[in-house]
Amino acid sequence: MDRCVNQELEPIYLPGFCSMYWLRLMYSLRGERWLGPYLLPILSAVRDTGAFFFVTSLCVASATHAYVIMNPRGEDDFPVYSAFTHTVRLAIFGDFDLFEYQGQDTTFEQVEGEWAPNDPSPKDLEQLPYIYLQLCFFCTGIGITVLLMNLLLWCMVGKFQPVTLRFTTSPFPT
Q1: Residues of the chain with pLDDT under 70
Q2: SS (HEC) of the chain
Q3: How many CB atoms within 10 Å of residue 160?
Q4: What is d(CA 80, CA 32) in angstroms, rounded to the nearest whole number?
Q5: Domain boundaries defined on the chain
Q6: What is the model's pLDDT at position 84?
Q7: CA nearest 136: which of 169, 171, 103?
Q8: Is the Cα torsion angle 108, 109, 111, 113 positive or negative in sign?
Q9: Alpha carbon of 77 to those of 59, 129, 149, 153: distances in Å?
């Protein structure tokens, strides 16, 4: 690490190179008899999911675009990035704060010596923006988080099983 501190190596590139080294090590182990038959189907299945990730990216982009247009968090300095992070958190990771998604913030008040959340009321929003935000939330949550991720599992299993059979059944006696 002294090389990074002394600016002999660029600290920006080093994490990428280290990650690539570990991936290269994993890829080089595909020829090992004890690991290769189990690793090759995984690599083959991952290679065949490019089209799925393209479709998922377009779905996330469309949900982000819809969220940007609704602009529930009007005071953001970077509204597109904010909308993208909210959409990715909901669509890919399934992590969300519904009040934050609606552009409202939870405040806290001290009750009997402890801080208790004071959740905002949905009535603080107008009716149509509230309905549109809820519709976008449920379409993104169900359409991408649930439907597309289950479709990914189905695609991976469909690609993984034939390749597993091909690599685990060997014509050569062991």
Answers
A1: 1-9, 163-164, 166-174
A2: CHHHHCCCCCCCCHHHHHHHHHHHHHHHHHHCCCCHHHHHHHHHHHHCCHHHHHHHHHHHHHHHHHHHHHCCCCCCCCHHHHHHHHHHHHHCCCCCCHHHHCCCCCEEEEECCEEEEECCCHHHCCHHHHHHHHHHHHHHHHHHHHHHHHHHHHHHHHHHHHHHHHHHCCCCCC
A3: 16
A4: 46
A5: 52-159
A6: 96
A7: 103
A8: positive
A9: 24, 21, 31, 37
Q: Are the CB atoms for 75 and 106 separated by under 8 Å?
A: no
CA-based nearest residue to 156, from 58, 75, 46: 46
Burial of 122 (0-12, 13-18, 19+ CB in 10 A): middle
What's residue 173's pLDDT? 53
Per the listing, tokens 């909210």 go with 86
**Tell me, what amino acid is at 15?**
P
Question: What number of residues does the chain have?
Answer: 174
